[in-house]
Amino acid sequence: MKEYALIMRHDDGAKVASPEQIQAWMKQTMDWIGGIAAKNQFVSGTGLPFQEAKVVRHDKSVVNGPFGGLKETIGGFIVVRAASSDEAAEFAKGCPVLQGEGNSVEVRLIASGDGVH
User: Fold this and answer.
1) Structure letter (DSSP) for residue 18
2) What is the pTM of this model?
3) pLDDT tens-digit series, residues 16-28
4) CA geometry: angle 40, 114, 5, nearest 5 deg
5) N or C: which end of the chain has fewer CB within 10 A?
6) Contact 48, 75 (CB under 8 A)
7) C-alpha angle 73/64/111, rounded to 5°?
8) Are 14 and 75 in contact (CB under 8 A)?
9) What phi and psi, each to the nearest 5 degrees, are found at residue 36?
């Protein structure tokens, strides 16, 4: 099996959710990850909070925040083991982040250390 990153993108990361919404989404996310882990196909993952985020530009300037002038942000990622990108995409379809209009989950093959994909 290969490893794939499932990258959770929020269309508008500046929108503020209530503490109750955040708690509900976290439970849904943990349940979703638990289902993947039950198949022994979860590798790792983490959220990426907006606090203390910086963007370093090509000219070495540093700006605050993950936005860089864009509304879309990456909220987190998980790594899964899957036989194909199609199987990894099936996992992605269950991601609670997709409840938000415009949100998406990007599926990316992780390069192996030996250069073979």
Assistant:
1) P
2) 0.83
3) 667 788 788 889 9
4) 40
5) C
6) yes
7) 50
8) no
9) -70, -40
∠ CA 111-58-117, rounded to 5°: 5
Q: Which residues contact 8 (CB under 8 A, 6 or more apart)?
A: 74, 75, 76, 77, 95, 97, 103, 105
Q: Are 8 and 93 in contact (CB under 8 A)?
A: no
Write down the domain spans for the chain.
Answer: 2-109
Report how many helices (DSSP H) and strands (DSSP E) the chain contains, helices first.
Answer: 2, 6
User: Cα(21)–Cα(57) distance, rounded to whole angstroms?
Assistant: 34
Nearest one of 52, 6, 3, 4 to 29, comparing CA atoms: 6
When computed from its CA atoms, the radius of gyration of the chain, rounded to whole angstroms, is: 16
What kind of architecture, by CATH, is found in domain 2-109?
2-Layer Sandwich (3.30)
